[in-house]
Amino acid sequence: MKNLLLTTLAGLSVLAGQAFANITGYWTTIDDETKEAKSVVQIYEHQGKYYGRVVELLKNPGAKAKIKGNPSILGLTIIWNLEKDGDTYSGGKILDPQKGSVYGCEIWREGKKLIVRGKIAFLGRNQTWLPNTSFKGEVDAPTPKIPAL
After folding, report:
1. How far is CA 125 from CA 73, 116, 120, 121, in A?
2. Is 100 helix (H, G, I), strand (E, B) or coil?
3. Neighbours of 74 (CB within 10 A)
4. 117 within 8 A of 106, measured Cβ to Cβ
5. Beta strands in the chain (DSSP E)
C-alpha cells in the first residue's frame, strides 16, 4: 500500500510539473527601459512547435515593425519554431520588431512568470513576461506566418 501511495504521489508530482511548465496562453510583455506593460503576446502550439504573435499593443498601437514591408506590429508573429525540451522550449527564433533583429530563443517558466531569452551564440538577454488575464479579444491560434525579414 505504501509503495502504491508513493508511486501515485510521484506520478501526480510529474503531471503537475508538466502542466506548470506549459507556456501557451496570453502574456504581458514588459518594456526593459520603462518597466511598463508594452504588449500582449499569444503563445500557441501548431503541429508540435510553438509560436507567439502580438495580439494587443498597450503602448503605441500603430507601431510598425522595422522589417521588410514595415508591417504593423499588431498581429505580427514574433516567436517561431520553438520545440519543447523538458521544461524548456528552445531551438526557435524571436524577433525584436522595434529593431528588426532576430535572435535565437529559449523560453521557460519560473513560477507564474515566463522567462524569454533572446540570444546570439552564448550571449543573451532575459525578459520576464507576466500572465495576462485581462485580454478581452477572442483570438484563435492561426496558422503561423513567419515574417519576411
Report:
1. 21, 8, 9, 12
2. coil
3. 17
4. yes
5. 25-30, 37-46, 49-57, 77-85, 88-96, 101-110, 113-120, 123-131
pLDDT per residue over 45-74, tens digit each?
A: 999 999 999 999 998 999 999 999 999 999
Query: Cβ(97)–Cβ(65) under 8 Å?
Result: yes
Is the pLDDT assigned to residue 18 strictly greater than 50? no
Confidence of residue 19 (pLDDT cuts 50, 70, 90): very low
> What is the gyration radius of the CA atoms in the chain, in angstroms?
17
* Phi and psi torsions of 63, nearest 5°: -60, 140
Model confidence, pTM: 0.84
pLDDT at 81 over 90: yes
Q: How far apart are CA 90 and CA 92, in angstroms?
A: 6
CB 58 within 8 A of CB 136: no
CATH number of the structural domain 2-131:
2.40.128.520
